Amino acid sequence: xxxxxxxxxxxxxxxxxxxxxxxxxxxxxxxxxxxxxxxxxxxxxxxxxxxxxxxxxxxxxxxxxxxxxxxxxxxxxxxxxxxxxxxxxxxxxxxxxxxxxxxxxxxxxxxxxxxxxxxxxxxxxxxxxxxxxxxxxxxxxxxxxxxxxxxxxxxxxxxxxxxxxxxxxxxxxxxx
Length: 176
Hints:
Blueprint: H1 3-14, E1 17-18, H2 19-29, H3 38-50, E2 54-59, E3 67-72, H4 74-89, H5 99-103, H6 110-132, H7 142-174
Antiparallel strand pairs: 1-3, 2-3
Helix pairs in contact: 1-4, 2-3, 6-7
């Protein structure tokens, strides 16, 4: 399932938009839940157009260059709801970045391993600070749920790292 298609279709469910609006909204408001690049959004819009899921009209205002306005079609709405339902029930067992490194941590000196995990912990705490400062979305609960989920995952990672660092501290004390 491609959640990026769901994101683009979901944005078009609220209103017709041109590509720049979609990209700008994703970049400004959803950077913590999506790392979609502009080129990806445009290629998704083109693919959805070919599938008949969006209509494209050209609009020109004054001396500005013409721009394409994308509107969701009935077929697009059906796809949106199919993707939405699939997304909400989807569960996967992913390997978080860094887990492979944890498997081989015993190859490092414990002091070095602890210092590296402390650096990672500081980075996680910075991300928690960023996510915690995101203002609540005013309409509906969906956007807030996505940000709260991301924050919960980061906090879980922080708790794990703090426990692991303490475990390394204890092992270093015991070996002295």
